[in-house]
Specification:
single chain; 31% helix; alpha+beta; 685 residues; five-stranded mixed β-sheet; six-stranded mixed β-sheet
Length: 685
């Protein structure tokens, strides 16, 4: 009988699909990086698995991250969706929040809604904020809405009733009616997706879930079949989430909104946080540069910063828990362009996997960030993907000259250097948004770059924002796939209570917490996690009664007999965020929601200390001219990373090459290779 001792992590990006398999017993790693294959992305997964040379019958656990759900939202390619809501509230989704993309574009028009108003269907019903039925639900209205859905070709419907999280009976009955009338209709209920206050945010999150539910269901179903038929794998498929964990495929199909931007998050938590800890840094700025986007997340004292509201599009919030991440469109395939005012821009437009940057020779003619790096000598076109992929540097020069240089009278190198500086400024802004503007001092953090391009910019970024250390992992180009193998199963459960201290029944409060914990344990046990491997965290959402926004605070261990500890945590967070608290007695403190976060400890690989020993000279490659910010073109040392042994030390300017990425060390930097093969680079100001 074949021994199942491999864990496989996979990640589908806009340009490449990454596969990493790790043997839990020996630590052996097998890698596969292949071009992504839209629209049938699982073809790329199978290609990557074959490239890695791992047999399905050897695999204990398959863990998967993909941008399928996120891309469906960003490209507005979800299914035709309807919204059924309480009569009188048809315009909650369209009303949104009072914000503009730009305060200076007076002729700006907001983008179209995901669900057009004609497909927002009202139902007579009403539940009070405390759960009493004020107006019984009109079942005929629901049946009328169902018939309209059938006639209009609606594939998925979101049901969002006012205050249904306090009493979900009307939503539950609506689902029964919809299934009677239109059995093939995909139905999402708001009290199951986001059982909490704030109607716009709850409506929007539920609609997002409905909008991509059939897409992810079809995708994961197709992936499961291909893994079984083409790879001989019949074990569990775990899917990465935006909260920094993995969930079962069944859970992902039911709540696909949990998978939004899960790929960079798994890289931040499972790779950057882990690598930072190995290198001795608990405070980490996780910085990913992929083919299309850049992502910045914060790890503080070994734990990721979590947010309960983030926007996937303008005025389109998703309020499921997520690792707090800032995105900008300045990846390797991002295009340089000149606007009507003659200003040089980079991104967010991208060439994607097809046709790709100009150097790919697949018909792309735009100048991209990857083309810039080639022209500046930072990427060797003869060593792209370790030499497995052929790229043409002359096409990069041609694109830079024709698309950028011709507008300003620059040669290719000048165009590339200026485009690099624009991209760097964009990245620096994203880092400052995530650090200084949120109260973090970047001098207290090390930068851990990952993705195919993060290490190309990391040292320059560190110098600009004041960080002094960059830690480059051994396989940054496989970070999200590796991260998927390192994160735990994670579920979060919420229950709304809306009680002040005077209203609180502490026996009932403890009973509800016990129910949430029991439910969390049952879900993880159903997923195959032993009770001894389950860890529970209890939290509460707290606000002043007069506020609409809340803070999430830890709940003291044991039985809760008063709100003293919870209130102290809330006022401390309130003071930190806003610089003030209200005088005692001015407004009571209200517990809005109870939260239980359940972690299931599942098998995960660890990096082992390296035993290799070789001289630094063995890693040297022929030197070449490389451009650096503030230094221009400099004759630079080039190193083969695979031949660098622990303890190796060298100074910048230097280039370290490996198949999945290139690390750029500008002048006034110093590198030491640690015991795990990480490049720990000190950046002098």
């Amino acid at each position: 009988m074949t021994k199942r001792n491999w864990i496989v992590g996979t990640d589908i990006g806009g340009t490449f699909t990454d596969v990493i398999g790790i043997n839990l017993e020996t630590g052996e790693q097998r890698l596969g990086k292949v071009p992504s294959t839209p629209p049938t992305y699982f073809d790329g997964v199978i290609d990557g698995l074959r490239r890695a040379g791992i047999a399905g019958e050897e695999v204990m656990s398959f863990r998967h991250g993909a941008t399928v759900s996120t891309n469906a939202i960003l490209e507005r390619k979800g299914v035709k969706t309807a919204l059924i809501t309480t009569e009188g509230f048809r315009d909650v989704l369209g009303g949104g929040r009072a914000e503009r993309i730009s305060a200076f574009e007076l002729d700006w028009d907001p983008p179209e809604l995901i669900v057009p108003r004609r497909n927002v269907l009202p139902v007579r019903e009403r539940v009070s904020p405390y759960g009493e039925v004020l107006t019984p639900m009109s079942e005929e209205d629901v049946r009328t809405a169902a018939r309209k859905c059938r006639k209009r070709g609606i594939e998925s419907v979101a049901v969002v009733y006012i205050d249904s999280f306090m009493n979900p009976a009307h939503e539950q009955r609506s689902r029964e009616i919809l299934r009677e009338e239109v059995p093939e209709l995909d139905v999402t209920l708001s009290h199951e997706v986001l059982p909490q206050m704030l109607e716009f945010e709850r409506t929007c999150t539920t609609v997002l879930n409905a909008y991509i539910s059939p897409i992810l269901k079809n995708y994961l179903g197709g992936l499961s079949r291909r893994l079984k038929t083409d790879w001989n794998y019949e074990g569990p498929i775990l899917v990465t989430t935006s909260g920094g964990g993995v969930i079962s495929m069944d859970e992902a199909v039911k709540f696909p909104a949990k998978t939004f931007h899960s790929s960079p998050v798994s890289g931040a938590v499972g790779m950057a946080g882990y690598i930072g800890g190995l290198a001795g840094f608990d405070n980490v700025i996780a910085f990913e540069t992929g083919g299309t986007t850049n992502n910045v997340s914060m790890i503080y004292k070994g734990q990721p910063a979590i947010t309960h509201e983030w926007k996937i599009l303008w005025n389109v919030p998703c309020c499921l828990p997520s690792v707090d991440t800032v995105y900008i469109g300045s990846g390797g395939g991002s295009i340089g362009w000149v606007d009507k005012g003659g200003i040089l821009n980079v991104g967010p437009q991208s060439t994607g996997a097809v046709p790709g940057p100009a150097c790919y020779g697949q018909g792309g003619q735009e100048a991209t960030n990857t083309d810039c790096q080639i022209v500046l000598g930072r990427i060797d076109p003869g060593y792209f993907l370790g030499g497995e992929m052929t790229v043409d540097g002359t096409l990069s020069h041609k694109a830079l000259e024709s698309k950028i240089g011709s507008r300003y009278g620059w040669d290719a190198a000048t165009a590339a250097s200026n485009m690099y500086l624009v991209a760097l400024a964009n990245l620096m802004m994203a880092m400052r948004i995530q650090t200084v503007s949120r109260g973090w001092d970047p001098r207290d953090f090390a930068i851990v770059p990952y993705g195919g391009g993060g290490a190309l910019y990391a040292c320059d970024l560190a110098r600009e924002i004041g960080s002094t250390t960059v830690v480059v992992p051994p396989l940054p180009g496989y970070a999200s796939a590796f991260g998927a193998t390192r994160v735990d199963m994670k579920h979060e459960f919420t229950r709304a209570i809306h009680k002040t201290d005077d209203e609180m029944d502490y026996g009932e409060l403890n009973r509800q917490f016990d129910e949430l914990v029991a439910n969390a344990v049952a879900v993880l046990r159903r997923d195959g996690v032993p009770r001894a491997k389950i860890r529970i965290e209890r939290k509460a959402d707290v606000k002043y009664f007069s506020q609409s926004r809340f803070f999430t605070v830890d709940v003291p261990k044991g039985r809760i007999r008063d709100l003293e500890g919870i209130t102290a945590s809330f006022t401390r967070d309130m003071q930190s965020a806003y610089g003030y608290t209200l005088p005692p007695g001015y407004s009571p403190v209200e517990v809005v929601n109870l939260r239980v976060i359940a972690f299931g400890d599942i098998p995960k690989p660890n990096l082992h200390e390296l035993r290799t020993k070789s001289a630094l000279k063995d890693a040297r490659k022929p030197r070449r001219m490389v451009w650096f910010k503030d230094a221009g073109f400099v004759l630079t040392d080039i190193y083969e990373r695979g031949k660098l042994s622990p303890g190796a030390r060298f100074k910048g300017p230097a280039i370290i090459e490996q198949p999945d990425t290139t690390t750029v060390m500008p002048p006034r930097t110093r590198c030491v290779v640690d015991a795990y093969g990480n490049l720990v680079i000190k950046v002098d100001r």
